[in-house]
Write a structure and sequence with these properties.
Elements: E1 4-14, E2 20-22, E3 26-29, E4 34-37, H1 44-52, E5 59-64, E6 67-68, H2 74-84, E7 85-88, H3 100-110, H4 117-126, H5 142-154, E8 160-164, H6 172-188, E9 192-197, E10 208-211
Parallel strand pairs: 4-9, 4-10, 7-8, 8-9
Antiparallel strand pairs: 1-2, 1-3, 1-5, 5-6
Length: 213
């Protein structure tokens, strides 16, 4: 039996205007790249936030490997997330006052690790932004900024990468390129990729699709 990297069982959480939202039970195996597909308002971003430990739950359990993620204190979830989970949010949240290199170094520091300049360079080179490391986010194109956000998500060598709507603002050609890049980089780093989206164009790239709504 394949080992699970993360699972959700019987989870409910507070939603809009005090409404309780019941989330689907899911079990994602190590290396099982997964698409959470559903229309706006179906709860996919909430589910992604639950997987990241960013959303408190009312009932049920969220397990990260052998750890009951949902039972951890907030600072323990923060530490586990920083060390084991890479996040790519809709708004890329690169710190505008820092260069790309400094953004990546900060991600390493916040996770409690040492700054590894070689790994920063190697990751940037693989994403074709090595020559952009000393630029500020405002000096990047949309595609370059997205690659920088992917690099930041991978820089601590996470076991799990969570991406929220990474292709929704892109045309067909760039959406295809972005999802192929995410899949290849996750696999190259031995990470499991989970993408939450309403973009049905990319579903053919995933053998494991969880439909919401």
């Amino acid at each position: 039996m394949e080992r699970s990297i993360i699972s959700v069982a019987n989870v409910t959480c507070q939603y809009q205007l005090g409404k309780l939202l019941s989330l689907p039970n899911i079990d994602i195996a190590v290396g099982q790249h997964t698409l959470l597909l559903g229309p706006s308002g179906s709860g996919k971003t909430t589910l992604l936030n639950v997987l990241a430990g960013l959303q408190n739950i009312k009932s049920g359990t969220v397990s990260f490997g052998d750890v009951n993620f949902s039972s951890l204190a907030a600072h323990e979830r923060d530490r586990l997330r920083g060390q084991k989970i890479g996040l790519i949010m809709q708004k890329l949240h690169l710190i505008s006052a820092l260069t790309v290199r400094a953004n990546l170094a900060l991600a390493m520091t916040l996770a409690g690790g040492e700054i590894n300049g070689k790994f920063i360079n190697d990751t940037a080179a693989a994403l074709n932004i090595l020559d952009k490391l000393d630029r500020y986010p405002r000096q990047l194109s949309q595609g370059e900024a997205q690659r920088a956000a992917i690099a930041r998500a991978l820089v601590n060598r996470p076991q799990l990468v969570l991406a929220d709507e990474p292709t929704s603002a892109l045309d067909d050609v760039n959406a295809e390129a972005a999802i192929l890049l995410l899949l290849s980089e996750a696999s190259r780093h031995n990470a499991t990729l989970v993408v939450a989206t309403h973009d049905a164009r990319i579903k053919t790239h995933f053998s494991h699709v969880v439909r919401l709504g």
